[in-house]
Amino acid sequence: MSSSDIFIGETIGTAVLILLGGGVCAAVTLKASKARNAGWLAIAFGWGFAVMTAVYISAPLSGAHLNPAVTLALAIKDGGWDNVPIYWAGQLLGAMIGATLVWVAYYGQFQAHLTDKEIVGEPTVKSVEAEEKGAGPVLGIFSTGPEVRNVVQNLATEIIGTVVLILAILTQGLNDKGNGLGTLGALITAFVVVSIGLSLGGPTGYAINPARDLGPRIVHALLPLPNKGGSDWSYAWIPVVGPLIGGAIAAGIYNLAFA
Question: Structure pTM?
């Protein structure tokens, strides 16, 4: 794969991932959406199918990493570091593009949600707590955040979830004499993401992908959204550092146990 193919593939694939994944969060969250209050199952399956779609689209060009933690784990596993910056750059740019497209697709809903008097009127206990944490009322559409703020637990949750994801990716095909699972691998990965969301997503919203969280958080900070509140930068390092640590641990486990 050429550097340009890698960059283009990761940019397009990650944009699709965030468009569909952020899209389901917007659909469930925003007041004027037909899918409002569809719940956690909708979000978990929406993100899983977003992964599947993005992998199928980008795999021919870049191998469909779509996640800096995946790129890091594969570099540790195989010892190939040359293209890591290219992968990471495409993933971050793609995540920002995808988040912007979510805003475009739901523009009217964002406006209605953020200008509704019931939402932006008198402060409630919950809104005051959110403001103290630096999290705006629609930040959850773009990025993740903890239900209980505990740095050690939040970091550990992201590490654990990412280890599960990366191990599932690295071990695909081992039961097939190393021949791999081909296009079936995208479906398997999608259901792994659904499983992580349902089982481990409750504490932090399961970023398990630094680009997925950081890129949209930057877009949230830049977009001209009315009454959007803060972007919670004090928390932003956890969904970046946690998945990278998890990816490195998973690669180490793979090299020790499976290689």
Answer: 0.93
